[in-house]
Amino acid sequence: MSKELILSYEEDRVRIVILENGRIQELHEENVDDHFSVGDIVYGKVKKLAPSLNACFVNIGYEKDAFLHYHDLGPQVKSSIKYCKGVSQGKINSPKLNSFSFEEDIDKDGVIQDILSPNQEILVQVSKEPISTKGPRISSEVSLAGRYLVLIPFSSKTSISRSISTQEEKNRLKSIGEQIRPNGFGLIIRTVAENKTVAELQSDLRYLLNKWNNICFKNIKKGKPPVKILSELDKASSILRDNFNEDFVNIVCDNQDLVDEIKDYLEIIAPEKVKLVQYYDSHIPIFEHYNIDKQIKQLFGKHVNIYQAKGAYLIIEHTEALHVIDVNSGNVTASLKSQEDSALHINKLAAAEIARQLRLRDIGGIIVVDFIDMTSSQHKKELYEYLKEVMSIDKAKHKILPPSKFGLVQITRQRVRPQKQVNTLENNPNPDGKIESPIVLVDKIQDQIQSLVHSKNKLFLHAHPFVCAYLTKGVKSIRNQWFLKYKKWIRVIPRDGFKYLEFQVQNDKKEILYQHSN
User: Fold this and answer.
1) Mutual orientation of helices 478-486 and 465-472 as an angle, nearest 10°?
2) 200 DSSP 8-state letter
3) CATH architecture for residues 300-413
4) Which residues form the signal peptide (predicted)?
5) 200-256 tens-digit pLDDT
6) Which of 207, 42, 280, 214 is nearest to 138 (CA)?
7) What mean pLDDT is predicted for residues 271-291?
8) What is d(CA 466, CA 320) in angstroms, rounded to the nearest whole number?
């Protein structure tokens, strides 16, 4: 199994894709001007209390106040408030917590007004991004995530990931964690720390302590709420931190600055893998080269073909309250021993595609799946176990219920950011139902080529694949006629992401000389 990380940098966003054997497994987008994302640490100010909800609203600099529930305060919130107040007032001048006098833990069943009051300053971390009309969800129990460890200020516990395979390894890591854990900090040892050496864990701990010392402490000291103390790693680096393993064979990006940042981060977490990072420099966009734009259009529609199912497909519908997925066999004929075996086979393929779709679209909330009907209870159990298996790699918290009487499977999946929406439909270029003749579009393209062809620049025409096919078909193609007429070769580049009437003319520096859209 080979994985590739592909990054496309545009003016206002970075699009990131994880490919597995050439197929999209994860799609992420990061807007360059995003104000808040999960993991950001902010020094905020309590705006108002909501005793009926046992919660409060905190000004963290976002247009809507963030929501902080009592259960998200964390037991050491009093110590955190005391420390931050001392640092901001100049009474505490050290980022170390070994000599700090801790407060008592709060009562887990207490009320918000006994702990916080309006205008109180508090250190918080974003746990859920703003969704629809709601502001961010936050927690006062902050943590700093590294490759192998998670550092938790104001705590004193060492916790081990439940996913670590053996009790012996858990005991070994627990012992190491207790030895290296600094006073005043807690540690969570992550799954990827399995079989790692003491030196590797210590190196990761030094990196996290340095982040706390040089970023968090200094920003608390000089910051006036609301102020962002620490931004979560950019999306590319956080994906590397959480997903990078031996399966990765390629990391490709079309922006040199981003390439350098990724190399710098890999020098910290996996220096031997820096050579995997490559800079992509071509007039064919990186997502076109790796066939990503085409896959995106195929994967985000209402109808999604099931991989290797030869005609079976999913119908995915979204409502206000839940998401519904219907599995259809299409025109698949039973090639196995019986119709029941064929249904189980298609349902398993559908289960794998559903697990992939939930990750791709970042679908959260309630999901109801209607698989192809099966009568065998053994087959139903086998499908249920297989669905749990393919969902196990999903990092979002989720729960799967066994099939109901009606054969429906219900899934709940954690939502921490808005669902990803990719519009695969195109508007009618002309609302009255009429569009210009294709020959008129070709004339427009030829006019632009004629006006630009005498420049010293090489010319690259980007257009919809149908238009490109028309311009390049045959020995007497329109492009060949341009070459004979102007003595200049125009490179024609099909763009799956373009609309029918959209085209661009670029020079050899990838600058857009002319752009036409619907």
Assistant:
1) 60
2) H
3) 3-Layer(aba) Sandwich (3.40)
4) none
5) 899 899 989 988 887 778 888 877 888 888 876 566 777 777 777 777 889 999 988
6) 42
7) 90
8) 37
